[in-house]
Each structure stands twice: as C-alpha cells, then as structure tokens.
Amino acid sequence: MWDDEEVSRWNNSSPLEILGVRIPVVYWPLIYQYKRSDEWSRIKQRWLDWKHLIAEYRKLGHDGFWNSHSRDGRMLPLTAIVKALRATRKLENERIAAIAKDELGSDFDMAFSYRKGKEYVVCQRPTSISRLFLQM
After folding, report:
1. Mean pLDDT (whole number) for 15-25
2. Residues facing 116 on adjacent strands
C-alpha cells in the first residue's frame, strides 16, 4: 500500500487503479467522494485503517514499526496491528476528552456544541471532542 510519501517502501502497489495508474492511499477520499459517495461509505473504514497504519509507520520508522508490532520475532498480522491502533486511539481520545471537560468546565457545552436542524447539541463522542479540542 502506497502513501505518496515513501513510494519505494510501498513497492508502488495499490488496490485502487485507474486506467493502469496506481492511486496512493492519500488520494482515495478525493477519488471515491467525487461522484461515488455510496462507494466511499463502504470503503471509508478501510481507508482510515490504512491512514492510521501509515501514520504509525511514519512516526516509528520501518524498524520501530516492526519492533513495536512483532511478537516473539514474528510480525503481527495487519488486522492485529489495526485493532491495537484503534484501541490506542480510543484511549487517547477518551483521555483528551476528559482533559477538555476538566479545563473548560462550565464552558464545555458552549465550546463543543453544534447545530442539528433547529437545535444545538453538545458533542458526546470522545473522537469528536478530542479532534475539536486539539484544533483550539
């Protein structure tokens, strides 16, 4: 799987190909969202998994990634790595959401609300709270 940053590492391979041109994972949303929103809703989770795998790989480097994601000298399957990364992200989002609630106190509802129709709703999902808090 290729991410358009380190092409040599990914052997120029991609399951998405258009007219014989392999499309890097970083461009998948643009391709699938263009006129294929129904397809994007089906493939989005796979794309997110690859996005997080690539981010982890870039953060740790080749050796660090495989040292971190190996057991008894054997590389873990990608599904196991994805599962571990999801669990780590979930814990981190919950931690950041708790920090946001503590720091903002009574201002939290105002800072993390959005309009849904005619009503204002306060964000409940830790992933949304974490993302918005980090953008502040």
Report:
1. 73
2. 119
Residue 27 CA, distance from chain mean position: 14
Higher-confidence residue of 30 and 112: namely: 112
How far is Cα 34 from Cα 31, in angstroms, rounded to an integer?
A: 6
The gap between the terminal CA atoms of the chain, to the nearest Å, is 33
Q: What is the torsional sign of CA 105, 108, 110, 116? A: negative
- Please indicate, yes or no, whether the overall pTM of this predicted structure exceeds 0.70: no
State the amino acid at position 105 in one-letter form: G
Question: What is d(CA 73, CA 89) in angstroms, rounded to the nearest whole number?
Answer: 25
Secondary structure class of 24 (helix, strand, coil): coil
Contact 85, 52 (CB under 8 A): yes
Instruction: Give alpha helix (H) positions in the chain.
Output: 28-35, 37-68, 78-104, 108-111, 126-135
Nearest to 131 by CA among 87, 89, 80, 81: 89
Q: Which two tokens stand for residue 71?
A: 């057991």
